Amino acid sequence: MEASLHIENAEDLYQNAPCGYLSIHPDGSIIEVNKTLLSWLNFKREELVDNKYFQEILGKGGEIYFETHLKPMLQIEGEISEINLELKGKGRIQIPVLINAKKVHQNTGDQPIYRFSVLDMSQRKLYENELIKERKNAEEAMTKLSQINVELERFTHRTSHDLQAPLKTISGIISLIEAKNLIQPNSKIEELFSLITKNATRMRMMIDDLLEYSKVDGESITFESVSLQDVCNEAIELLHESVQKYNVSFCVAELPEVKGVKIQLLNLFLNLFSNAIKYSSDNVDPIISVSGKKSGNVFKIMVKDNGMGFDQKYSDKIFDFMERLHTQDKIAGTGIGLSTCKLIVENHGGKIWAESTLGKGSTFYFTLPKVPD
Amino acid sequence: MFAHGYGCDQNMWRFITPAFEKDFDIILFDHIGSGKSDISAYDFSKYNSLKGYAEDVITICEDLNLKNVIFVGHSVSSMIGVLSAVKRADLFSRLIMICPSPRYIKDENYEGFSKQDIDGMLEMLENNYLGWSSSITPVIAGNDQAASDELKNSFCRMNPKIAKHFAKVTFLGDHREDLAKVSTPTLIIQCDPDGIAPVQVGKYVHSQMQNSQFSHFNVPGHSPHLTAPGQTTKAISSYLNL
C-alpha cells in the first residue's frame, strides 16, 4: 500500500488529470494551465500563461456573460458551478465545456485567484442541443395553441350570440308566414318576404363560412407532402363555373412541394381565387397569376390579380375576422374568407400578407416551410 | 441610491455601501426581474425599454419621499439613471456612473459589439438555464410561491426568459441621444481595459454630458466596485467632497 502512494505525484496529477485546470487573476490574465487543457485547445503553455486573458478564449458572447454574471458571482459567492461555456482553441477548435470555479486567497491582502476545473462535454452538448431544440418547439407549439384558443373563444362567442339568434328569429318568421299562407302574390308582403329570405340566405352564408373557418384546426392535423401545383389546379377546376361565367384566365407557374394539410391548402387557394374573381375590375376580364419561389427556409407563393385592388393602409385589416372594406349592398361577403386564409397559413408556420393599389389589382403573398431534403 | 447592473443584484454593492452609511441614507433595491424582486411584477412590455426601469427608480424616490438623491448606477443602470434624471431632474443631486455605455452595438464611428456577439451571449444564457424549470413564466405564473422561493434562494440568478429579455433590452438599446439632456452633475468611473464598456465609450459619455467628470481607473474589468472597492469608494467620496 505504502509503495503505491508514491506512484502518483502532485505535479503529474495536476498536469495530466482527466480534466482541464486553469487559474486566472481577477482581471482574467492566465496564471497557470495544465497539459490536458493545453492539448484540448492545441496551445503551447507560453501562448496562454502571462500572454492571454481568459476572456480571449471565451469569445465575445462568453466574455459578456463572464464579466456581467460569472465574475460578480465568483467575487461575492466565492464559487460557481456547472457553468457551460465554449472555449476557443487554436485555429477552429471550439470545445463546449462545463466549468466549476473557486476563488482562493493565497495570502491575506493579496488579490484573489480564480481556479477553474474544465470538463469537455462535446458529446453531452449534442444531447443538450437536442433538448433545447425540442423545448423550443414545445414552447412555440404552446404559444400557437393559446393563440388559437383565443381565436376560438371569440369565434364561439360571436357565432352563438351574433349569428344563431337572428337566424333563428328570421327562420321562425319565415315558417310562420308560410304556415299561415300569408303571402299574396304581387303584394307588398311578397316584397318584404323576399327581403327576409335574402337575409336568411346571407346569414346561412355566414354560418357556412364560419364552419369552414372552425374546421381549420391547428391541433389535430398531420402534415404530409403536398404538391401545390396539384392543389392549385384542383382549386381552379372547382371554380369552373365562375371561371367560365366571368371569363377568368389563369397563369400558373411551376409550384413546389410543401409540407402541409392538403384540404387546408386547397381551401386557401379557393378563397384567394374566389376573392380575386369577386373583387375584379369592371369591364376587364380577371387574370390571376400564381407563382412561387424559394426565399431562405421558406417558399414564397404569390397570387396576383388585375382586380379593383384596395388602399394599402387596409392591408392588415382585410385579414381580420369579419372585417370588410365593402358594404353588403355592393359586394356580398362575410369577412371570414381571408381570416380563414390567415389561419391556414399560420397553421403551416407561414405568413400571409397583401400588397395593393386601389384600382390596380392586388397581390397576395404567403410563405410555407420548405420540405426538408 | 445604488442600482445594480445586468446579470446581478444589490449584493454587488456590499463592499461599497459601508463607507457611506455614516453620511447618507442608503437605498438598495433589485430591479424587477433580478435578485429577490417579485418576478410576477415583470411586465414584458413595460421593461421592453430602460424607461420602464427608470419609472421604477422615480417611483422609489417618490414613495420614499427622497430628495437630493445621489444615484449610483453600474453599467446599464447608469443609463437608467440618465433616463430618470432626464425625466425628473428635481429628484437627483448627483449621478455616479460606473462603467456606463449608452450603446453596446458598434456602428460606423462607434466601438462596440456586433449583433453576433450579443446572440452568442444570449445563447450562453440559454445554455446555462437548462435545469431551470421552463414552467416558471412571469406574469402568467403570478403568485406562484414555490417559484418565488426558488428565486429567493439563488444569488444573481434570473428567470431565463427575463434574463434574455433584459439582455436584449440592455445590449441592443441606444441611449446616446439622452446623454446631452442630463443637467445633473455626473461622475463617470471608467475601468481600463473594460471589455464591455471600453475606454472610448466612457470618454464619449463624458464628452456628451455637459456637467460630467471623468475618473479613469487602471483597473481591468467591468465591476470595479467588486474588484477594486477601495479605489471606487475613494473616487466617489472625493467627488462628493467627503
Largest pleated sheet of chain A: 5 strands, antiparallel
Order of SSEs of chain A? HHEEHHHEEEHHEHHEEHEEHEE
Category by helix and strand content of chain A? alpha+beta
Order of helices and strands of chain B: EEHEHEHHHHEHEHH
State the major sheet of chain B. Answer: 6 strands, parallel
End-to-end C-alpha gap of chain B: 17 Å
Determine the mean pLDDT of chain A: 86
Oligomer: heterodimer
**Low-confidence segments of chain B, ≥5 residues, pLDDT <50?**
131-153
The fraction of residues in strands of chain B falls at 5-15%
Share in helix of chain A: 40-55%
* Total number of strands of chain A: 12
Q: Mean pLDDT of chain B, rounded to whole units?
A: 87
Chain pair forming the biggest interface: A-B, 29 and 37 residues
Radius of gyration of chain A: 34 Å
Low-confidence stretches of chain A: none
Described by the principal axes of the CA atoms, the overall outline of chain A is elongated
Strands ordered across the widest β-sheet of chain A: 2-1-5-4-3
Helix content of chain B: 25-40%
Describe it.
The complex is a heterodimer of chains A (373) and B (242). Chain A has 373 residues and is of the alpha+beta class. Helix content of chain A is 46%, strand content 21%. Chain A is built from eleven helices and twelve strands. In chain A, the strands form three sheets. Chain A has a five-stranded antiparallel beta sheet, sandwiched between helices. In chain A, strands 7-9-10-12-11 form a five-stranded mixed beta sheet. In chain A, strands 6-8 form a two-stranded antiparallel ribbon. In chain A, helix 6 packs antiparallel against helix 7, helix 8 packs across helix 10 and helix 10 packs antiparallel against helix 11. Chain B is α/β, with parallel strands linked by helices and 242 residues long. Chain B has a six-stranded parallel beta sheet with strand order 2-1-3-4-5-6, sandwiched between helices. In chain B, strand 5, helix 7 and strand 6 form a beta-alpha-beta unit. In chain B, helix 1 crosses helix 2 and helix 3 packs antiparallel against helix 5. The longest helix of chain B has 14 residues. Classes of the chains: A alpha+beta (373), B alpha/beta (242). The interface between A and B is medium-sized, with 29 and 37 residues.
